[in-house]
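thread: overnight batch results

M.L. [08:02]
morning all. the overnight job finished for the chain we discussed friday. pasting input first so we're all looking at the same thing
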Amino acid sequence: MGSKKEFIDFMADAGVLTFGDFTTKSGRKTPYFVNTGNYKTGMHISALGDYYAELVVASGEQFDALYGPAYKGITLAAATASSLYRNHTIDIPYFFNRKEVKDHGEGGSLIGYKPKDGDRIIIIEDVVTAGTSVRESLQLLKATADVTITALFVSVDRMERGTGKLTTLDQLNKEHGINVYSIINARDIIASFPQGDERIEKMESYLV
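M.L. [08:03]
and the structure it wrote out:
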């Protein structure tokens, strides 16, 4: 699909990767922000699906279904499943959740594939900062059936600090045994800019 630099350029062109003074959902001040809500065209979602699908295939993970947490994970999971079939002839079901449980019609909180005992599930997310939404997804999925969540795939690993010396994603791996994969990470973003760029200095300070 392309190099990490090409993906970073893709994010910047879409207005997804921006630099300035921001506050993350966890309340931490950050010199850069990844707003995946700015992906909004057919080309954007098609390319994203291809990037994710290539990452999933390259990981070698074995799984029975893809799960996309509401809201941003919904389109990501659908696009990834579509690309897996279109480009890799892998036909795997996907599903996602509602923020509010539906009490009429088919009911329930999950739409699409209905996970069953023994299923291996992978989660398709946009960006993980504090890991709160991932932990919520784990609780929801475990309450649905006796499934195993084998891996988490994200577009950007911000390499945020968790508790202690571990990053958030390393902590998720340690606590829940989930393998974590990212298309790029914060270090890749830093490496894409020339030395001396003030954005590098700010990101380096942020990661310390």
